Amino acid sequence: MSEQTTGPVQEFEYQAEMKQLLHLIVHSLYTHREVFLRELISNASDALNVARFRQLTDKSIVDHDAPLEVKIVLDKEKGTFSIEDTGIGMTKDELINNIGTIAKSGTLEFLHKMKSDQKMLDADLIGQFGVGFYSVFMVTDEVTIETRHADADSPAYRWKSVGEGKFTIEEIDRAKRGTKISFTLKEDAKEFSEDWRVKNIIKKYSNFVDFPVYVGDEKVNTVSALWQKRKDDLKDEELTEFYKYLSNDYQAPLGHLHVALEGSVNFKALLFIPETAPLGFFRETEYKGLHLYAHRILIQDDCKDLLPEYLRFVKGVVDTEDLPLNVSREVTQSSPVMGKINKVLTGKVLSFLEDWAQNDTEKYEKFYKNFSPLLKTGVNSDFSNKDKIIELFRFESSAAEKGKMTSLKEYVARMKAEQKEIYYVSGDSRESAERNPNLEYFKKHGIEVLYLLDPVDLFVVPSIHEYEKKSLKSIDKADVQVSKDEEKQEENAIQESMSKSFLSAFKEVLIDKVEDVIASKRLVESPVTLVVGKEGMDIQTERMMKMFNKDFTGSKKIMEVNLAHPLIKNLWDIYQQDTKDPFLRNCIVQLYEGALLREGNLTDPTAFLSRMTEIMEKASRK
Ligand SMILES: Nc1ncnc2c1ncn2[C@@H]1O[C@H](COP(=O)(O)OP(=O)(O)OP(=O)(O)O)[C@@H](O)[C@H]1O
Question: Confidence band (pLDDT; 50, 70, 90) for 571?
């Protein structure tokens, strides 16, 4: 029965974006429609949490001692559904502002995209995208909300909407605190007025809600603090169920970690690593943190202070006895207890990953593929754990077949006695890294080079500097060490007189383009290559900087010339006859621009092509 109206009915219009969203929900979401119930229970549970907080500190709230619970009433004959909570309730402003806005940015965009991709829109995905309350319009055409806020002087209201266009608000006579949402189910959604169906859905999605959920007179959910159980008593099935409830993920987690600590800090934690990164995970600046409980009572469902940001893929709960119940967000942030928990958890998560890396490579590689771009940034932000994080790095390598990953430890174990540095090269793909002419020397001499194929590597690997006292060096740098013997042999092969004056001719032609031109000790098959000075930025890094900032110019490169290459020898012959030969000059520019092209930095391909035509014409003349 509805409460009496006590004021005029006011009409409101949804924002344009909201209308579009509602249209999509009503007309496009067909599968997993039962998640509307999860959304409604989750909102009720949030409201109950707020009420529980207020109960602790404010004796004057409406129905101070009312039990905190959710009641669902079904009428199979009439096909109706109602859900009522004794939570905090809503004021008029909250009804207008909170109901009627899209919870998460990007939701509409996402739904549109799914639709235009002609994908089957699956309502199970919406939990991740924050359609929230409005999912109810999948199963009904008209919704009524009756609510009274816990503040003693706050009136009660009825909100009514037929979905797509408008909603109305009127004042009503309701004495109870909390919110009741009721509606008649659509013809094709009548199943949701069946007891057994609704109970099954609650068990599936909402078993771990912190408050009793009743269907009729029967309490349906478990209401158990899983993390309080002993490690050995935890069953895989309930862990998976709990994880899904907690994270809104529809897949089982990749793994979990149970921590119980007693001593200078006391807490229990149940943490999960997801199987895959949720859509939009890496774009997300607004991510959800862990759930923080104190004495088994949820005090924050989004606590970002329990783990550093580079571990934000971890989902789960932390329950501590060291924080007071009525602790505010500001106090938790600066609390030394939080600092201690953060420190312990970070160490535990890193050791947990290290254990996978050592003992379950398949799982680790799955994890690594999904989350390593984030994990790796820890090297630049968490100095106390830097060494641990570095152990978790994996790379493709010239010593391993495509797709196989290797660690720095394994690399160092394979290093030859005379090798002093750890070498790496970056590239968009293994193939492009392997085509880098700077690699030729290393290939010829069987020196292992790591391939940095993840763009994030370029920002983090250079800051590793050293691993087991061996410095990490990009093979694009001019000062990579080439073994002494080798140097001698090469030097002998190079005619001293040839190199000096000839190279200065290169320099003269490329005067404003390169920093220097030197004889190469590392090239085998290519005529020239570009390298960066000791302090310079890696070539790939520079390319990325240019993508972010059009005005970024980068530094001048050093050109290395392979004096043993047949083409260079031919040019030497031309040079000896005429040091200013225009063909020679053209070839020098072409060689330089060819090197730019290879590294993806050629800015004027038209000039490059016409010069090439000119050179070919000359070369093909009889
Ligand atoms: N039963 C309720 N009691 C009190 N407030 C509610 C209730 N249901 C909804 N609300 C209010 O309406 C808002 C919008 O709910 P909605 O489900 O659309 O999004 P959300 O819960 O904020 O986001 P998400 O679904 O992503 O968690 C809530 O944030 C809350 O302020």
Answer: very high
Domain stop point among 446, 474, 502: 474
Same domain, 167 and 271: no
Residue where one domain finishes, among candidates 219, 254, 269: 219
Please check if 182 is assigned to a binding site.
no
Domain that holds residue 331: 226-359
Evaluate whether residue 47 is within a structural domain.
yes
CB 232 within 8 A of CB 239: no
Residue 104 marked in a binding site: yes
CA distance 471 to 422: 6
Decide: 175 and 110 in contact? Cβ < 8 Å. Answer: no
Torsion of CA 396, 401, 404, 409, to 10 degrees: -60
CA angle 214, 219, 220 (to 5 degrees): 90
- The number of domains in the chain is 4
Q: Do 208 and 238 belong to one domain?
A: no
| Widest Cα–Cα separation across the chain | 106
On whether residue 380 sits in a domain, the answer given is: no
pLDDT-based confidence at 493, cuts 50/70/90? Answer: low
149: in domain = yes
Distances (CA, A) of 368 to 231, 356, 383: 26, 10, 21
Q: b or e along 150-165 (b: 16 or more beta carbons within 10 Å of the residue's beta carbon)?
A: bbeebebbbbbbebbe
Q: Are residues 9 and 95 in the same domain?
A: yes
- The ipTM estimated for the assembled molecules is 0.97
Residues 46 and 150 in one domain: yes
Per-residue pLDDT reduced to its tens digit, 546-565:
777 777 777 888 999 998 89
466 lies in some domain: yes
Take residue 482 and report the two structure tokens written for it.
């080439």
Q: Is-contact 281 314, C-beta < 8 A?
A: no
Residue type, 257: L
CATH number at residue 498: 1.20.120.790
* Burial bucket for residue 564 (CB in 10 Å: 0-12, 13-18, 19+): middle
601 is in an annotated binding site: no
Pocket test for ligand 1, best of 39, 41, 43, 137 (most atoms within 8 A of CB): 43
Gap between the Cα atoms of 220 and 206, Å rounded? 9
Half-sphere exposure of 345 (CA within 13 A, CB side): 34
> Which residue lies with its CA nearest to atom 30 of ligand 1?
98
Q: What is the CATH number of the domain that holds 59?
A: 3.30.565.10
Q: In CATH, what number is assigned to the domain containing residue 247?
A: 3.30.230.80
Please state the pTM of the whole predicted model.
Answer: 0.71
pLDDT at 392: 98
Task: Round to whole Å and give the CA distance between 253 and 273.
Answer: 6
- Which residue minimizes the CA distance to atom 19 of ligand 1? 132
Span from the CA of 90 to the centroid of ligand 1 (angstroms): 10
Residues with beta carbon inside 6 Å of ligand 1?
A: 39, 43-44, 47, 85, 87-90, 94, 98-99, 103-104, 130, 132-133, 179
Residue 131 marked in a binding site = yes
Query: What sign for the dihedral angle of Cα 545, 551, 556, 560?
Result: positive
